[in-house]
């Protein structure tokens, strides 16, 4: 007789109903229990293993819910949320919190940051953005400044490229405006982007931060801080500099400026931004070159200083002395491709200078080979009937607007 099984929960089950037998006569629960026998031990082992594997599998498998089941879920078990695009994790509605964090991380001890703006047209691989970052790497005492550079991205592509290249990035959302494409000079999109920038810089000042604003087509070759005026509130580079840093006839260029945070500069940026309504269809730089003569500037006591092109040059008026130049700007130039070519050539000229023996660095031997593709000569045939000389001194951004070229970017 087989050894009886130990009593288990299975044997204690009672079946109140009658179960059919294969012979056709009913089998009661009492008679049915008689057929229970001990299952073979190998079968028990295999059953336990199968149940264990099944349990482990379902425990390790993520629980995914559609919208309906997610709403029905009572929240007591973890829900696995699929990964999303990194920009989608940014709370664009909480701009102040995000901006506070990135400015605090990048600021110098005196709360000074370096700011630039970027959109997709300027952010692609092998673009002006790459040359911009490279200039800090090969400049004289400029690499450390990258720790204090904040890149303001106008669109998703620019933001993602920034995150791949640099630690301090800020996504600046503008509802209903797409800033990703190349914004041709004086186009509606271009003007909106420039004025959005002015309003944003006012916010930075109100948060108590000083800043250097630099266009991404400005190459940094030396630390510029020693060349700033200690008593200046608002200091700006020039397309044309006439030798006196107080002369408001100097042609200011908004692509590079150093601004201290105080009540005077905050009021000035508010005034600058509001002046767009009085000058519809005008570039922020053109408006600046108009309002700099306004009595309001003196009323608020703003100390405006114009930076010499000897230190802060550009294609309009290049710096001639390699031993003192801080920055060079691809201003007075038509199109991104032309800018890229001349900026790359500019970096090559700088490397050539840095490789010279010390005795030759202070000589007159080094020279810029730019402008090359950025030469304004091809535009002269567009200027029939234009009064005045066709040269960089006359071709200010506002006057160049009459060319009506769809691919123009003079900054």
Automatic annotation (TrEMBL):
It comes from the Eukaryota. The keyword Transmembrane applies. Its EC number is 2.4.2.-. GO terms for molecular function: glycosyltransferase activity. The chain crosses the membrane at residues 43-65. Keywords: Cell wall biogenesis/degradation, Glycosyltransferase, Golgi apparatus, Membrane, Signal-anchor, Transferase, Transmembrane, Transmembrane helix. GO terms for biological process: cell wall organization. SUPFAM superfamilies: Nucleotide-diphospho-sugar transferases. GO terms for cellular component: Golgi membrane. Residues 145-343 form the Nucleotide-diphospho-sugar transferase domain. It is found in: Golgi apparatus membrane. The keyword Chaperone does not apply. It is a single-pass type II membrane protein. PANTHER family: EXPRESSED PROTEIN-RELATED, GLYCOSYLTRANSFERASE-RELATED. This is Glycosyltransferase.
């Amino acid at each position: 007789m087989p050894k009886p099984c130990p009593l288990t929960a299975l044997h204690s089950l009672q079946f109140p109903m009658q179960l059919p037998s294969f012979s056709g006569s009913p089998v009661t629960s009492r008679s049915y229990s008689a057929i229970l026998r001990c299952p073979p031990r190998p079968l028990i082992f295999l059953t336990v293993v199968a149940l264990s594997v099944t349990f482990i599998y379902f425990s390790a498998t993520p629980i995914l819910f559609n919208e309906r089941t997610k709403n029905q879920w009572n929240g007591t078990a973890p829900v696995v949320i699929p990964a999303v695009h990194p920009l989608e994790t940014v709370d664009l509605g909480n701009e102040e919190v995000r901006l506070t964090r990135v400015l605090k991380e990048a600021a110098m001890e005196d709360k000074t940051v370096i700011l630039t703006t970027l959109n997709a047209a300027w952010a692609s691989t092998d673009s002006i953005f790459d040359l911009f970052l490279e200039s800090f790497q090969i400049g004289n005492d400029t690499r450390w400044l990258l720790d204090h550079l904040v890149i303001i991205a106008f669109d998703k592509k620019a933001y993602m490229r920034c995150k791949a290249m640099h630690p301090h990035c800020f996504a600046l959302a503008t509802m209903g405006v797409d800033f990703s494409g190349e914004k041709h000079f004086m186009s509606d999109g271009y003007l909106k982007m420039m004025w959005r920038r002015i309003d944003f810089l006012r916010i930075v000042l109100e948060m108590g931060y000083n800043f250097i604003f630099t266009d991404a087509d400005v190459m940094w070759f030396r630390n510029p801080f020693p060349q700033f005026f200690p008593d200046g509130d608002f200091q700006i580079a020039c397309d044309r500099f006439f030798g006196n840093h107080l002369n408001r006839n100097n042609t200011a260029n908004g692509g590079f400026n150093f601004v201290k945070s105080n009540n005077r500069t905050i009021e000035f940026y508010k005034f600058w931004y509001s002046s767009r309504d009085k000058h519809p269809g005008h570039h922020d730089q053109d408006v600046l070159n108009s309002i700099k003569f306004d009595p309001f500037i003196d009323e608020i006591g703003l100390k405006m200083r114009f930076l010499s092109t000897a230190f802060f040059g550009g294609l309009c008026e290049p710096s001639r002395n390699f031993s003192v130049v801080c920055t060079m700007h691809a201003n007075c130039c038509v199109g991104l491709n032309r800018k890229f070519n001349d900026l790359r050539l500019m970096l090559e000229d700088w490397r050539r200078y840095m490789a010279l023996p010390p005795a030759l660095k202070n000589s007159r031997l080094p020279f810029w080979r730019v402008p090359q593709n950025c030469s304004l000569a091809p535009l002269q045939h567009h200027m029939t009937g234009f009064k005045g000389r066709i040269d960089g001194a006359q071709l200010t951004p506002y006057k160049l607007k009459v060319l009506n070229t769809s691919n123009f970017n003079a900054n």
